[in-house]
Structures are given as C-alpha cells and as structure tokens.
Amino acid sequence: MTCFTQKRSEIALVLFSGWCLMASCAFGFAQAGGESKIGNLTGHADSGKALYRRYCISCHGVHGDGDGESAPQLDPKPRDFTKATFKCRSTPSGSLPTDTDLYDTISRGIYNSNMPQWRPLTRQQRADLIAFVKTFSPRFQEEKPGVSISIPPEPPTSSDSVQRGAQLYQDMNCWSCHGKEGRGNGPSAAALTDSKGHPIQPFDFTSGTHVKCGDGGTAMFRDFMTGLDGTPMPSFADTLKPDQAWDLVHFIEALPAASKKGISLIKADPKGE
Amino acid sequence: MKRQSLPRVFAGVLAGTLVFSALVAVRSVRAGSPASPAAAGVVKGTAKVKGTVPKPVHIDMSQDPKCAQAHAGSGATEDIVADSSGDLQNVVVYISAGLTSDAKYDPPQAPVVLEQKGCTYTPHVVALRANQELKVVNADSTTHNIHPSPNNNREINQSQAPGAPLSMTFAREEISIPVKCNIHPWMRSYFAVFKHPFFAVTGKDGSFEIGNLPPGSYTITAWHEKLGTSFQKITVGDGETKSLEFVFKTEAGS
Fold first, then answer.
1. Inter-chain touch B161–A172, beta carbons under 8 Å
2. Does domain B37-253 have CATH number 2.60.120.560?
3. Distance (Å) from the C-alpha of residue B217 to the closest C-alpha of chain A?
4. Rounded distance between C-alpha atoms, residue A160 and residue A165, angstroms
5. pLDDT band at A28 (very low <50, low <70, confident <90, very high)
6. Which letter does DSSP use for residue A188 in this model?
7. CATH 1.10.760.10 in chain A, residues?
8. pLDDT at position B29, please?
C-alpha cells in the first residue's frame, strides 16, 4: 500500500514536472511579447510601464485607450493603443507597424498634434516605452508586423514630373479631400472623421508646415503607399507605381511656392472629364 | 533515485505532450464533423418595419461628375429600405447562440463580391465568413477608397483605381463593420463577418432563410444598421423548418 502511494506520488511529480516545463516554455514565449527591438536596443515592458505612467498616461489613459484625463481637450485625439492602429508606419495599410516605426514616432512626435518629440528621454527609455505600449493590444502577440515598403531612390524633380503629378492628383481624386489647390478644402473635407468619429482636417499642402509623419519626399512617398491608418487617408500602394508616387511628391512639394506666387499648377478643372 | 529523476522528467514532458496532442486531435475530429444533412433544419421568415419609414434622401453627387453621370442624378440613401408592405431589406439574420462552442467551419473558397457602381455599394450590406475573400470591384470610371472601420478586426484603407483588382479578409467575427469611401462620403456599406455559416441577409421582399442547421436550441438575432437589434429563441428538431418574423419599429412608429 505504501509502495503504491509512493509510486503514485512519483508519477504525479513526474507529470507535474513535465507540465511545469511546458508551461515555462509557454510563459517564456509570452514574455518575448513584452519586448521591443530597435536596432541593437532591446526595450522591456516592465521598465516602460513606469515611464508610461509618468509621461503618457494623462493623454493616452490608464488602459491605453486614448481616454486620458487630458483627452477631452485635445484635437486630434490621442491614439488608442488597444486597437493597434497607427498612422505613421512603414508597413502596408492594415498591418502592424515595426518597433522602429513606433520608436520614430515617439522620437519625432506627430506634427500638427499634441504629441511632442520625446528626445529628452534616452534611446533605451524610448525603446522601453515601445515595449510597454505594445502590451495594450493582443495583436502584437498574435501577428507579426507588416513588411516595410521599399522606397526607390528619388528621381530628379522637373516641371514634367510636377505636371505628371498634377494629373495624378486629379485622377486619384486627391482633390476630393485636399482641394483643387491643395488647401485641404476639397468637397469631401467637411465630412471627414477619424476612425472614432471625430472630425479631422485634410492636410493643407500650401501651408508649408510639417506633415504628420515626417518631412521630406521620402516620408511623403511612404505616406502615399502606406496610408495613415485611423484617418481617411488611404494607401495608394495598389494604385500608384513608384515613379508615379514620386511625381505626386514633386507636385505636392511645388504647391507652397506656387500658392505664394498665386500660380495654379492644375491646368484642367478637376471636375471636368 | 536521483539518476532516474531526469529521464522521468523527460518522460513526463513526453507524456504531457502526448496527452495534450491527443486532446487537440480529439477536439479537431469533433470540430470537423459536419451536421448530418438528413437531420438538418431550416429557419426562415421575414423582417418587417412598422411605423413611418423616412423617405430616402436624394444624394447630390455633383462634386464628382463621373459619379453624377453614372447615376443619372438618381442616387438616394439606403438607410432603411422597405416596400409598401413594410418588408425590410438589408437585415442581417444569424445564429448568435446555441452552436457547439468548439465547432469550427472552414471558410468557402469562393469570394464574396462587393461592387462599386454609380458610386454606390452593391450590395449595401455584405455578409461573409471570417477569413473568406472579399473581392472589391470598382466598376466606376473614378477612383474610390474602401475604408472599413472595425472594432474587432484590423482597420484597412485602400484606394482603388477604375478596374483595379482588390481583395481583403477579416479574421474575426464582427457584426457589423461600417465601411466608407472617404472620397465620396455618401457611400456607406456594412460588412457582417461570421465564424459560422448560419446567417442570411434579407432581400427585397424582407425574406431570409438559414439552412443546414443542426438540430438544437438557438438564439436568432436580427441586426439592422438604423433600427437596431432584436432576437428570438427557437428550437429546431430533426429536419424541421421553423418560421420567424422580426418586426422593427421606427422611432415615429414606436
């Protein structure tokens, strides 16, 4: 009887050890989701949590849902991390951003919003914050980030590329939101909302100010091809060829100067055939 | 004893893994067993609306002449579409409870098609399965963007030139996802995504039919984009056909 009891407890111990090992493997896998990788940097969610509570919580909220104490006063509204939908990405529309995309957003801030640059934080702190922000959505455990789009070298700008871009601006219906002259006052502008139903303004290209996700032709090219998820700005990855996207960049870059001089770069009426 | 303990731990891992695998296998076999066709039941019926139905509002598409020309100026809102008898179109009717919780249904290979024609979505309400291909067709001569705003799926926002191919899928059940074209703000659609095949969308006569239903007790829910949600509980026996009527009331009529 004693022998039987001992044997039974041994079997139980052995089975328990086995399950413990399996469970620890699973736990280790889950922990990998609490990290971020930016180049050689590894961010840790545990360290990022304290930073989040100090620097981010008042806007993005305790639960990361963008409903912090300051949120009612902010326009545009703070990002809801629980949806894992991010404007500034190098990855296709609908896919998760890379850790580097999120790191760049924290470092650069989002122009024309209340999201500041967080360069006073060390690189490690920013990486830790990214690791923590990713814990708000299970998508970061379930899916891999999208593959960053490739951006070919920019061809030289010319009056021809600007004119081709002007034609694309009409054909792609960019004017519908951004307006015939690129002032952000197109016929659909007043109806636009973000994904949470808050009114949102299309960018005024003539203003010469910073665009949301970084300046320069490369950033604008990327925005065309990835779209700004969570906003009405779609991806044109399936619609524009790379050369065409560069033509469109050249046209948009020419708008502030043309506007100052009172020149219209669009020859035909976009409402015409 | 100590020498033996390490191999025994590995034996434990192996035993644990085998038990786990066996459980998964049993679960998979059960999930893969479809209902016997001979025993399948049917739920069918109609959706109706009572009260004053607001008249469709004329849509001014003049901001994009290509839309206005394609539509000959006759575009109208599709918020509530009903005939003179109150037969209500575009109601999603589905099993919301009662199915075996571990049952899994592979999505069909054939895609569901959403067409943009005359700067209007056809059909206005699309029902499809999780991970089933949704083929989006742009039959217009103007560029659109397709922008679903889900709560339980990933948000995607793609522009589509005339005639260009575009497909998308949704991984999780969600009833229903609002869909917009931001370029043409009057364009609205809804995607109802199901993890099972027991759903239908009411047609012009307000009718629906859900077939091949295993015998059992179910909650049947009807969803309409403006008139809300209602549900009924039913029991379907072997090969039985049950009839249901869902009645929605407009604010004016309630």
1. yes
2. no
3. 33
4. 8
5. very low
6. T
7. 35-142, 159-261
8. 34
Residues of A with CB below 8 A from B63's CB? Answer: 176, 187-188, 271
Average pLDDT, chain B: 86
- pLDDT confidence tier of residue B11, bands split at 50, 70 and 90: low
Half-sphere exposure of residue B235: CA atoms within 13 angstroms, side-chain side: 1
CA distance A118 to A183: 30
Number of other residues whose CB lies within 10 A of the CB of residue B57: 11
State which amino acid sits at residue B229: T
- Which CATH code fits A35-142? 1.10.760.10
**CB atoms < 10 A from the CB of A173, how many?**
25
Tokens in use for A98?
A: 């890379």
pLDDT for res B21 = 45
Architecture of the A159-261 domain: Orthogonal Bundle (1.10)
pLDDT digits (tens, 9 = 90+) for A69-112: 999 999 989 999 999 999 999 999 999 999 999 999 999 999 88
* Residue of chain A nearest B15, judged by CA positions: A15
Q: What is the mean pLDDT of residues B223-240?
A: 95
Cβ-defined contact of B9 to A271 (cutoff 8 Å): no
Model confidence over A188-201: pLDDT tens digits? 999 999 998 999 99
Residue for token pair 């699309």: B126
pTM of the model: 0.81
Compute the Cα dihedral for A180, A184, A185, A190 and give only its sign. positive
Under a CB-based contact definition with an 8 Å cutoff, are residues B193 and B173 in contact?
yes
Q: How far is CA B144 from CA A238, B117, B119, B182, B249, in A?
A: 12, 10, 8, 8, 34
Nearest by CB to residue A188, choosing from B12, B66, B183, is B183
- For residues B65 and A58, give the distance between their C-alpha atoms in angstroms, rounded to a whole number: 46
CA distance A136 to B120: 37
**A86-109: b or e for each residue (b if 16 or more CB lie within 10 Å)?**
bbbbbbbbbbbbbbbbbbbbbebb
* Of B145, B155, B165, Cβ closest to residue A85: B155
